[in-house]
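Most newcomers find our protein records easier to grasp once they have seen one. The structure tokens are whole numbers drawn from a learned vocabulary of backbone shapes. The record below serves as our worked example for the rest of this section.
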Amino acid sequence: MDQGSRIAANPTGIKNPLLQLARQDKNNAVWLGRPCYFGLQNGRNCSPHQWTFGRYSDTVADSLKEIIDSLAGDKQVILVGHSGGGVLATIIAQRSSLVTGLITLAAPLDTDSWTSAHGYSPLYDSVNPAHLPNSQHSLKQLHITGDRDSEVTIQHQTDYLRQYPAARQVSLTGVNHQLKGLSTQDWLTLITRERQALGCY
């Protein structure tokens, strides 16, 4: 949807800031696009439902989890997601024992709070991470917001974080929703530190 009121014909955003940061990362990394995004919106199994009310559905999350599990083999992985990608990464991380680390940037982890705050249509066919049962496997979490982000704030993560007191939450000074203000070097330093802490390379 366009600002929560008009359904977009093409769900893919013009900017993909995390992709630009990932391209500078020389370590092992795989970029996954959401189903029906990146030019596939007219595919046989695609409809606007996949990028509106069902954008965080079990079907979408499980399709991405299947790819991640296949690529990972028996290796541990860290999932990183920006905005809605962070919501999906969180859902997947709770379901896969291969995922030992989770990093989100500007992700509305309580989607009900987020839609309500902005007057967006409720995501009736999506999973809300704040309502998921606690994960049964060890998962280290870092959730990042920017103090100049008016789209996603810490208030849109509070109910989720309450379930995971060990999860870290960081607010970055001068960073907006599109990650403007987060330098490539700062990002590479952060992701390298997280990989080393988890033993994932």
User: Anything to note?
Assistant: The chain has a mean pLDDT of 86. The first strand starts at residue 77 and ends at 82.
